[in-house]
Write a structure and sequence with these properties.
The complex is a heterodimer of chains A (439) and B (458). Chain A has 439 residues and is an alpha+beta fold. Chain A is built from 10 helices and 21 strands. In chain B, helix 1 runs parallel beside helix 2 and helix 3 packs parallel to helix 4. Classes of the chains: A alpha+beta (439), B alpha+beta (458).
Chain lengths: 439, 458
């Protein structure tokens, strides 16, 4: 990589080359049966240059396209945004521990298709032992990734990472009702137990057996870890350093202010061993960290990549993330972690006379997220009556403003769960939410 | 190239094998406010092999074209490992054809337009939005073009080489008043070259106007309403809520779903006709063949209120014993072709659309959209703006309108279909199984639906 980037030294002020290789193997089941196995090998290259003080970017899928990539990056740099930063001369620090965080498990890389099929069969069998009428779609996947980075100042890094995931979608179809439940688990280390996944599936299938009526109104609500992103997405968008610099975030200029109540603490944390969003460095070579975004309701930090940190006059936070190798880094979250509270799930519902549990929503992020407004169909939810789960609710919408409603957290669960491998959330209960249903 | 693919496919022990190779070049220009925030150019080369052995699929994707024989072998090996039943795959006549884009003769190929010209056009649009009003805080103008060349060959002798241009432009206007931040989006997508990109000044200004208007709008009170949808929102509704249920991959192996979607079942009043048609010329969802080499055609999904057809791939058509429709589509070489919509629309009715508002005591006129989503019978979609309807009159502006419901109940509740069909090419697209955004169009006249649940505060 260094040799390639060195070729550009006469043509640009500085440059950075980023390369990623993925090897992914998903095993997919449809309608209770093994359907297909996919073997995917992807290579991606991204070149970012600074020429005449401006940024140029180009990407490709093989080393043989390097010269074209260089020409294109230099060509687009004429129109590029002014570079407020330069690429780092050194990556990491002397204090930084080698191999921290842990990201690679050779057992994932070596997992055979036959073993993955065993796991899939196990899930289908468990579902059908519970109820043979259920439709079950399953995905088991393993991924191995290698990231390499080098820039024209001689700084470089590389790391390898593995991920293994199990996902299940269960559907119960009747003439006048369809129930759909999705659960998944993802981790960097192989051989994790199916029990925690299955325990959730079984509990929720039992809760959902009976359909109960509910009336429109304002009522307490418990969001499960899986549903919590509905409320946190506006916050994630609003704390993005780019949005703040552009003055379009309603959370801009409010650092240090108590905006929510003391139950709420949120971190962007890329240092957790084997988590989906962890890495030693972000995608432009800044050490990832555990960055407090909100602590006890106080807005602590916005998150930045290099360019936006300089614009804001602060240190970069290790949040320069590429959505894919086709895009340049921009502010993004590594892993989003919400601190646990003290309440058990049964504590959280025991004092609720009438309320709802929200577990899955339709239309995540489809409204005006910036403003905090949300309005979602509760695709899977339950009614709480006198401190107990009474049954499943249907045709229900929840709505409100997430940035306001998070002031009214009344309890945070004592057991956080990983959702989609990248979000670590406990359940949260809110004093009141607006629920609409048929008249 | 044809020989190279044919050689790689020969002599394999599989029920069916195909190779897809794709190369593209793409330009992206992204303005935020008046500043050019990002500009990039990318090239991608890739491909995949899909093999069917005894009812199961092996699928291999890669970036190097140098060892196709090995990739074919690998896909066949994986499929052989898991194959354990009868293969279902509907027969189709092999075709050999070169397909060139339908850019009008006077039209311009965006590959020949300079970066300077593209960037300065986008700058003009950004200026139009930002300068529209002091209440406009920022804007996003995002331009993407992509020119793909796809080679497709299968073990039955089909060889297609297709060039596909795609261009999209998204406008977001962001208006702000204190802590109140409102956004409005407009977008276009096209496969007809560069020209459509040059005619968007009014569209950019409309985004700005709508964002400013939203600052004055009230949040909608939650409840059940009679709603009138504009053609875009009605088109999104029929796509999201109904169209996806017509995709036979959800049904082919699921007897309970098939029962729910039994052909011949009455699902709506007689005036309702719903069509998916990939053979319409020059639209975003159009192509002569789908991604399995099956010719596209006009398919009635609902005819005179009765379920009358569904969308198929070669596998689902064979499994269900129905005829091919040409709806297997793949977003790119990273993905298998799966059953997708193309250009989906509600046919025109007879009612002048202004009359749809008559005698609505209290209702909502919902227009434009932020997004939509569906899981089987439940749907939800968000309008970009709207108004209250009181005693047949369109009154105060509303925002944060999200409509939801059960598809089958809602289809029955469609009680008026206007005479103003519009097919809309937006820059978004359709998402399914991680394949997003696939170019499709949404179409409908204005329609009126009673008893729709709208989320909102109490």
């Amino acid at each position: 990589m260094q040799q390639l980037i060195a070729k550009l030294s006469k043509r640009v002020k500085s440059g950075e080359l980023f390369k990623v290789n993925y090897k992914t193997t998903p095993v997919d089941y449809e309608v209770n049966q093994l359907k297909s196995v996919h073997s995917e090998e992807i290579e991606g290259w991204a070149l970012r240059v600074i020429k005449d003080g401006k940024i140029g970017f180009s990407s490709a899928t093989s080393e043989s396209q390097f010269e074209t990539m260089a020409e294109k990056a230099i060509e687009v740099a004429q129109f590029g945004h002014a570079a407020l930063f330069d690429f780092p001369e050194q990556i990491g620090s002397a204090q930084q521990q080698e191999d921290k965080p842990k990201l690679y498990d050779s057992a994932v890389a070596e997992e055979s298709i036959e073993e993955m099929i065993k796991i899939g069969n196990d899930i289908v069998q468990r579902v059908h032992t519970f109820n043979s009428e259920l439709r079950c779609d399953v995905g088991i996947a393993k991924q191995e990734r290698e990231v390499q980075y080098g820039n024209s100042y001689g700084a470089s890094f590389n790391y390898r990472k593995t991920l293994f995931s199990n996902a299940v979608m269960i559907q119960d179809t009747k003439e006048d009702d369809m129930m759909m439940l999705e659960e998944s688990q993802q981790w960097g280390k192989a051989n994790f137990s199916l029990e925690s996944l299955w325990e959730k599936v079984e509990r929720k299938l039992n809760w959902g057996k009976k359909i109960v009526e509910i009336e429109s109104g304002n009522m307490p609500a418990v969001f499960t870890p899986k549903a919590l992103l509905v409320l946190l997405l506006p916050l994630v968008v609003g704390l993005n350093g780019r949005m703040v610099n552009k003055k379009i975030s309603p959370l801009g200029g409010k650092q240090g202010q108590l905006l929510w109540n003391s139950f709420l603490s949120i971190y962007s944390d890329g240092t957790i061993d084997y988590a989906g969003g962890s890495a030693p460095y972000d995608d432009e070579g800044i050490t990832m960290q555990r960055l407090p975004l909100v602590e006890k309701g106080i807005l602590k930090n916005y998150y930045y990549d290099l360019q936006n940190a300089v614009e804001a006059g602060v240190e970069p936070t290790g949040n320069g993330i590429r959505n894919s190798f086709h895009s340049a880094p921009s502010p993004g979250i590594s892993n989003l972690v919400v601190s646990e509270g003290e309440a058990s799930f049964s504590d959280m519902i025991k004092d609720i006379k009438q309320g709802i549990v929200v577990d899955q929503v339709l239309g995540l992020g489809q409204g005006n997220i910036l403003s905090g407004a949300f309005s979602n169909n509760v695709q899977l939810g339950y009614k709480i009556v006198n401190g107990k789960i009474a049954g499943r609710i249907k045709n229900v919408m929840i709505a409100g403003n997430a940035l306001e409603i998070l002031r009214d957290i009344i309890a945070v669960g004592n057991k956080a769960e990983w959702v989609l491998g990248q979000y670590c959330f406990p359940p949260i209960s809110l004093k009141s939410i607006s629920v609409s249903t048929k008249d | 190239m044809r020989n190279r693919l044919t050689d790689a496919l020969s002599g394999q022990k599989a029920d069916y094998v195909e190779i897809r190779l794709e190369e593209y070049e793409s330009t992206n220009i992204h303005f935020q406010g008046k500043e050019l925030e990002k500009i990039s150019s990318s090239q991608e080369i890739g491909g995949n092999v899909r093999a069917l052995v005894k009812g199961r699929w092996g699928f291999v994707t890669f970036n190097r074209w140098d060892d196709l024989e090995k990739k074919v072998k690998e896909a066949v090996e994986i499929a052989t490992l898991i194959g354990d039943q009868k293969s279902y795959f509907a027969p189709v006549e092999p075709v050999v054809e070169q397909l060139l884009p339908e850019i009008p003769e006077s039209g311009r190929d965006f590959r020949k337009v300079s970066l300077t010209e593209k960037a300065s056009l986008m700058k003009n649009y950004s200026d139009l939005i930002v300068d529209f009003s002091p209440q406009i805080q920022s804007s996003i103008v995002d331009y993407t073009d992509r020119y793909s060349i796809v080679h497709f060959a299968n073990s039955e002798g089909t060889y297609l080489r297709e060039e596909r241009p795609y261009l999209s432009i998204h406008f977001t206007a962001i208006a702000r008043n204190g802590d109140d931040v409102q956004m409005a989006n407009e977008s276009i997508g096209t496969i007809r070259g560069y020209e459509p990109a040059e005619q968007l000044s009014a569209v950019a200004q409309k985004a700005a106007q709508r964002a400013v208007n939203l600052l004055q709008a009230k949040s909608v009170p939650g409840g059940e309403y009679t709603v009138v949808l504009d053609p875009l929102l009605a088109g999104v509704f029929i796509h999201e809520a109904f169209g996806h249920l017509s995709e036979a991959d959800f049904l082919a192996e699921d007897p309970r779903m098939q029962k729910l979607m039994q052909l011949g079942k009455r699902v709506a009043q007689e005036e309702l006709n719903v069509v998916d048609d990939g053979s319409l010329p020059g639209l975003l969802g159009s192509s002569k063949y789908d991604d399995e080499g099956v010719p596209t055609r006009k398919n009635y999904l609902i005819k005179e209120g009765v379920l009358s057809g569904r969308l198929h791939s070669r596998e689902t058509a064979a499994r269900m014993g129905e005829s091919l429709t040409g709806n297997a589509r793949a977003l790119s070489y990273h993905f298998k072709p799966i059953v997708r919509m193309t250009n989906t629309y509600i046919e025109e009715g007879k009612i002048p659309y202004q009359e749809l508002f008559n005698d609505i005591k209290k209702g909502i006129y919902a227009r434009q959209f932020y997004g939509g989503n569906t899981t089987f019978e439940m749907f939800t979609f968000s309008a970009g703006e709207g108004n209250l309807i009181e005693n047949g009159k369109i009154t105060e502006p509303l925002r944060d309108i999200t409509l939801t419901g059960n598809l089958f109940e809602t289809l029955y509740h469609i009680e008026g279909i206007g005479n103003d069909l519009a097919i809309i090419e937006s820059g978004g697209g359709c998402g399914k199984g991680g394949q997003q955004p696939l170019p499709v169009t949404f179409g409908s006249p204005h329609i009126r639906i009673r008893k729709v649940v709208v989320g909102g505060r109490h």
